[in-house]
Amino acid sequence: MKNHRYTHPMDLFLDTANTECWTALAKTGLFTGITTNPLLLERSGLNTSIETYQELYTKALGLGYPSIQFQVFGSDWLQCAQAIQAIGPEVVIKIPANETGFSVATQLDLPQRITLTAVYSEGQVMAAEALEVAYTAPYYARLKDAVDNADEIFDRMQDIAVETELLVASLRSVDQLFGLAARGFATFALPQPIATEFFKSSLADEAISAFEEAAQREPNKVATSSRVGG
Fold first, then answer.
1. What CATH number did the domain enclosing 120 receive?
2. pLDDT mean values, one per 10 residues, the chain (230 residues)
3. pTM for this one?
4. Looking at residue 219, what DSSP letter applies?
């Protein structure tokens, strides 16, 4: 299994349509972009439509996020993909990784602006490689629910992925994130509960508080003089 950390830096995407979360995390600079899908929009009380996508696009770029991903929907995925493409150059088009999706990706002919999503198998990653799309989004926790060898499948996916980048989605805990990162996976779609917690440390908080308390205290002049003279 190759370790992608030696080929590019960590890329983190914020996997939510909750714009309050976008605002809260925007200034950290930790996130390469935002990923969405119709389920995430529904959970945030939003309708899935091109108009909603346009509003979210404006919001995301206004907050300084470099990119945002929107998924095709409806009876004509190609027409929808073209409408998503027209929203702006920073938009990546998410297309489900099935036969219809492969055809849409081929006709759209914008591989560097496509994420193939709903990926559960090595064969889907092979198809993504053949199409040379920018991202392929395998669902980790959902796969673990379905089969006993999910980690083995993910390792094989990573060995197959050369041109396409595995954008690991469906994470349910910080421990799952850390475990995959330690194995060399380097691109993740982080749901809000993980995105707001993964970088926190109670020990770091204690150390920072101690630093601030020391900064406010009167120095021990005898000890300070001794150190400076010694």
1. 3.20.20.70
2. 59 98 97 98 98 98 98 98 98 98 98 98 98 98 98 97 97 98 96 97 96 88 50
3. 0.90
4. P
